[in-house]
Specification:
With 577 residues, this protein is of the alpha/beta class. It is built from 22 helices and 20 strands. The structure holds thiamine diphosphate and magnesium ion (MG).
Length: 577
């Protein structure tokens, strides 16, 4: 049959279960957009900026079982989208990026949007493809999807030259998609070794990353069997419920909250699942990992990268944990509930909260009070997107997350501007869920125009903007290191104006006394289908455990002479002003 590449691509994307594409049309993909417009299964979503398109697609993949996709123009569309593609790449999030390409049937150079997109995107993707013949369109998209979703997932880029989209060419019928059946080759020897280590440990602990997001039944059963305290990475905040008596918090080293720090002190074996022990997760590599490290991950490249694994087990978290659990159950009697540990965790958590409650927020909104009120307002399955900044670590330490995939956050690529578009992607993918974003004012400025897209689609999302007038995560560290804060004070931002400009409602939360009423109003408006900019007059005068711990950990590692030089500089500036 003779078909255009645009027609073939849309049939293939439909067969892959893609429900949305995000992007902006241009001369190299209007044909694709015309076919997307004809599709009864896919909704092409127009965005204000392709960076947002990629964050939205990332969120679709994180909160649902479908893969987020982009439909963008070459070069400028791809470079704009790159931040979101990079975020997905380092976060192990699948994504299909379909871009137009310049004409391959013309002899001209210096065509519009002509760059080597593949060289540009190579370090940000698992693979890139340039389709040169119509017959390869559907098979290439299927291959791209398999790569994107297998092993450690990630983004895959496909270039469809515009001439293939415009003009029909010979191709086979588009076959139904058959997913790869992953062959399981989990090493039994390693499972046995892990069982030996974990059952011999007197104080085993568990550290869970995003890779454990679909293994809640197994991680819960293991934690209870071993009576092991559980800590998560930042990206993995949602993988284990904060309401569980063995849940301690984010991280477990000097940058962690007291409940995690104390519960993991003296830990003599660690079961780590779906984490790479990356910089943020470990508080700048400040954690002490016991020699008895059992590390489970689908990507063998992560083993012993930063901390040597005694036993490394390659495989899907759910499958490996299932086997481990079965063996442990056979060989190891369930430990008595460690009431003392439960009590210690509960008490530490309670005290940390009290410390925050006791902090004088001087007429502003106390973060702990805000997050408690927000938690009471939101159902357990509500989805919260977070951005990057001080608000991220406040969320990690003070907002109890209760269900897998309900909190999404930029981590290792660490791209500011994520939360607003990610919330929009999440709400499109899960319209039945309540969705909120926690975003710093600096990050908000980067992508807030995307709220116009939320308004267009009548998405009732509450964007909670922590309005402190600073790039606080950086200014706090600058204050400690330099006693000066250059380039981290923001210009005045009128959030009411931003709301008005984008079709959102504006609600102000001025102080603690106004928390409940503001939330009531904001979520009431959102329930009726209008996005809301919730302008939170947040108090940032108390530092998170993470910021304090990470600054200290990094400083301790500096050579002595540099420590002295920096300390003297701060001292001198404090004295002389
Ligand atoms: C794209 C990008 N640029 C710069 C940074 C560095 N950075 C990390 S956190 C942060 C401050 C964010 O400020 P804001 O959004 O106001 O959040 P706050 O820290 O005040 O809560 C900055 C500048 C980054 N992570 N990403
Ligand atoms: Mg700020």
């Amino acid at each position: 049959m003779k078909k255009t590449a645009a027609w073939l691509a849309v049939r293939a994307l439909e067969n892959l279960g893609v429900r949305f594409t995000f992007g902006i049309p241009g001369v190299h993909n209007t044909e694709l957009y015309d076919e997307l417009n004809n599709s009864g299964l896919i909704t092409p979503v127009l965005v204000t900026h392709e960076g947002c398109a990629a964050y939205m697609a990332d969120a679709v993949s994180r909160v649902s079982d479908t893969v987020g996709a982009l439909a963008i123009v070459p070069a400028a569309g791809a470079t704009h989208a790159a931040s979101g593609i990079g975020e997905a790449f380092l976060a192990g999030v699948p994504m299909i990026v379909v871009a137009g390409g310049v004409r391959t049937d013309l002899p001209f150079r210096y065509q519009l949007h002509q760059i080597d997109q593949h060289a540009f995107l190579k370090p940000l993707t698992k693979a890139t493809f340039k389709v040169l013949e119509h017959k390869d369109v559907a098979p290439t998209l299927y291959e791209a999807y398999r790569i994107a979703t297998s092993g450690e997932p990630g983004p895959v880029f496909i270039e469809l030259p515009v001439n293939l989209q415009l003009f029909p060419g010979e191709a086979d019928e588009v076959q139904a998609f058959t997913p790869l059946t992953a062959e399981t080759r989990i090493s039994n020897e390693s499972i046995q070794e892990a069982v030996r280590i974990l059952s011999a440990a007197t104080r085993p602990g568990m550290f869970l990353g995003w890779g454990a997001r679909d293994a809640l039944a197994e991680t819960t059963a293991l934690a209870e069997l071993l009576q092991a305290p559980v800590s998560t990475t930042l990206q993995g905040l949602s993988v284990f419920p904060a309401s569980h008596p063995l849940h301690t918090g984010f991280g477990f080293g000097p940058s962690a909250v007291p409940a995690a720090r104390n519960a993991f002190a003296g830990c003599d074996a660690l079961l780590a699942v779906g984490t790479r022990f990356a910089e943020i997760a470990t508080g700048s590599f400040g954690v002490t990992v016991p020699e008895n490290l059992v590390h489970i991950d689908i990507n063998p490249a992560v083993f012993s990268a930063n901390y040597p694994a005694k036993v490394a087990i390659e495989g899907d978290a759910k499958e490996v944990l299932g086997l481990l659990l079965e063996e442990l159950r056979n060989r190891f009697p369930r430990r008595e509930n460690n009431e003392a540990l439960h009590l210690q965790i509960r008490t530490d958590k309670q005290r940390y909260r009290e410390e925050w409650y006791a902090h004088d927020s001087q007429g502003r909104v106390n973060p702990a009070r805000f997050f408690d009120a927000l938690r009471r307002r939101l159902p357990d399955d509500a989805i919260v997107s977070v951005d990057d900044g001080n608000h991220t670590y406040l969320t990690a330490e003070l907002f109890p997350v209760r269900a897998p995939r309900t909190l999404i956050v930029p981590t290792d690529f660490n791209s500011m501007g994520y939360a607003v578009p990610a919330a929009i992607g999440a709400k499109l993918a899960r319209p039945e869920r309540a969705v909120a974003a926690i975003v710093g004012d600096g990050a908000f400025m980067m992508t807030c125009m995307e709220i116009a897209t939320a308004a267009l689609h009548r998405l009732g999302i509450v964007f909670c903007v922590f309005h402190d007038g600073e790039l606080s995560q950086i200014s706090q560290a600058q204050e400690l290191t330099y006693a000066r804060t250059p380039c981290t004070t923001l210009g005045a931002l009128n959030l009411e104006g931003a709301a008005l400009a984008t079709g959102a409602a504006w609600v102000r939360m001025a102080d603690d006394a106004g928390i409940e009423a503001a939330l009531e109003r904001a979520f009431g408006i959102a329930a009726a289908g209008q996005p809301v900019v919730l302008d939170v007059n947040i108090d940032y005068s108390k530092r998170t455990a993470f910021t304090q711990g990470a600054v200290k950990t990094n400083f301790r590692r500096f050579p002595l002479a540099q420590k002295l030089r920096m300390a003297m500089r701060v001292l001198k500036r404090k004295v002389t002003g």
